[in-house]
């Protein structure tokens, strides 16, 4: 009896194991079907853009010189200060200029030679000197007239006050009180704050895809939260430069904005350059794309049957891809990771 009882228990255990295994297999199949991911092929848009950094800079930097050598009496503006057009940047000690000294010297020579010539004419009329002596005196007098006129033409009025030719910000100062200035060196450099531009740094590999008039969106910590400024690419440099933000070689892109809001020179900005806008084309997510045997394919479902279609890809933003051929609108794509489904499989 005990032996029969043990046999019945063993048979029940085996039946239970088989039943559990069957249920697991059934549940797994159900889960597999429940995890099927599909998506209809549709036409949409794809915006291709580059996200880069840049700075706000003045469109024009004006250098201010003195027209004479002089001693500085007082400097009224320093680096970083704002200045308005016509304000006095620096005051100079009164001083006779070189051109004024040259005029004075030429006028003195002219006066002396004029007297000598008039005297020579009288002496010649009296027969006291020869005609050659008279002509020599006249030549010297004529030359003094030329020298005086030349000195006058080179005259530079001494300006004791040097004024700013524009409104802007002083970005460089090369003068100080009691400092003797050199008229060959700019006393000030002033950035024009009324005319700004955005200088973007774009890697050379990206720059080849950017065109004049491409749309640009600008954001910055210097703007009110949520503010996005719009502009266009105005100029693309033809030379390569070293980046101010990294060791990369870059191309400088100049962007003009419709308005600059609260931006000012020196502000750092983030920019999105839209270099291509694809509209009404078949666009699919990258997860449906499979590379098999050097071919690009997409699995589709047709009446519950798994099929495979070879496709040709176009532009991409790294997440979505344009399909230029191989897929038709409204086809049903099948997500097929790791080749889970084979051509000919039926999926309910």
Automatic annotation (TrEMBL):
Family that this chain belongs to: Belongs to the membrane fusion protein (MFP) (TC 8.A.1) family.
One GO cellular component term noted in the UniProt record for this chain: efflux pump complex
Organism: Oceanivirga miroungae
Lineage of origin: Bacteria, Fusobacteriati, Fusobacteriota, Fusobacteriia, Fusobacteriales
Coiled-coil regions, chain positions: 89-123
UniProt KW Cell cycle keyword: no
Domain CzcB-like barrel-sandwich hybrid stretches: 61-192
This protein's UniProt keywords: Coiled coil
InterPro entries the UniProt entry points to: BSH_CzcB-like, RND_pump_MFP
Entry protein name: CzcB-like barrel-sandwich hybrid domain-containing protein
NCBIfam families named among the record's database cross-references: RND_mfp
Gene3D superfamilies: 2.40.30.170, 2.40.420.20, 2.40.50.100, Helix hairpin bin
Record carries keyword Lipid biosynthesis: no
Pfam families attached to this UniProt entry: BSH_CzcB
Molecular function terms, GO-annotated: efflux transmembrane transporter activity
